[in-house]
Amino acid sequence: MRFGERTRSGTSVSGWTKRSAASSVPATVEYLVIAGGGGGGGATSGIQGLGNGGGGGGAGGYRSSVTGENSGRGASAESALSITSGTVYTVTVGGGGAGGLGSTSRTRGTNGNDSVFSSITSTGGGGGGTQGSAVKSGLAGGCGGGGCTQSGSGGAGTSAQGFDGGSSTASTSAGAGGGGAGSAGSANATNSNSSVGGAGGNGVSSSITATAVTRASGGGGGGYNNAAGSQGTGASGNNTGAGGTGASGSDGGTGTGVAGDSGVVIVRQGINERFPTTMTGSATFTATHWVFTFNASGTIGWS
After folding, report:
1. What is the pLDDT of residues 193-214, one digit of tens each?
2. Residue 70 placed within a domain
3. C-alpha distance across the termini of the chain, in Å
4. CB within 8 A of 10, min separation 6: which ones?
5. Phi and psi dihedrals of 283, rounded to 5?
6. What's the predicted TM-score (pTM) here?
7. Considering the domain boundaries, does residue 47 fall inside one?
8. Nearest Cα to 36, choosing from 88, 90, 109, 102?
9. 98 touches 78 (CB < 8 A)
10. How many domains does the chain have?
């Protein structure tokens, strides 16, 4: 192996030796920082054994500095992060919020946890509401949680991170959708014995890894004796920052809302710039960039 050579296996780094003396520490790096999504609200018992659906959880806040892409709530890309040689930067990946409990417990979904890269913080998504005057509104967050039952308001999203959750209408017992990074959650349908919950807000697409992936979608609201509303457009699963779906009332109101998805932090630098001397995430490469993905908290630094 030559001095300064990095070895690669497929698209992953299998090891590397001492860096080339000709390479320099990157002056700036691009990032995508997504917080954990909020949990969906629980279902509660309604009339004639039918259940009231919970509001959908809001997606985790979405911040991006990738040129030509957007941050959440329609904001333009942020400035790249300046790097100081010899500094080790902390990366925190926020977990998703828990789903609200059903039946007589009547709890909202809890908010997701913040994700952090150095000075960049994305706010955890808001939990979805459940039936009850004190808990029917969705919680504020990176993207707001959806409201539940009659006139439950949607939680507010955060500027340049995500949209508000949907508000439930006055005549329905289904949940509204949680907000997404790309659009607001939808209100629920008018009341009937089979009302479907509102759809979650859409996520935002990024090609920071060279493959376009849409993340940070809002959770669908739970239905009234029916299926939940649809998840907003975008991937849902671990490390997408998606909000959890509200529990459906079709089980008589005993259902627990779905937990929000954990977030992710992705960092990108030029392919010819100095490889980090400290890095606990996974490393991949393209023709033009090194890409470091953190699905769990860690550190990264250059010297």
Report:
1. 557 889 999 999 999 999 999 9
2. yes
3. 22
4. none
5. -115, 130
6. 0.90
7. yes
8. 109
9. no
10. 1
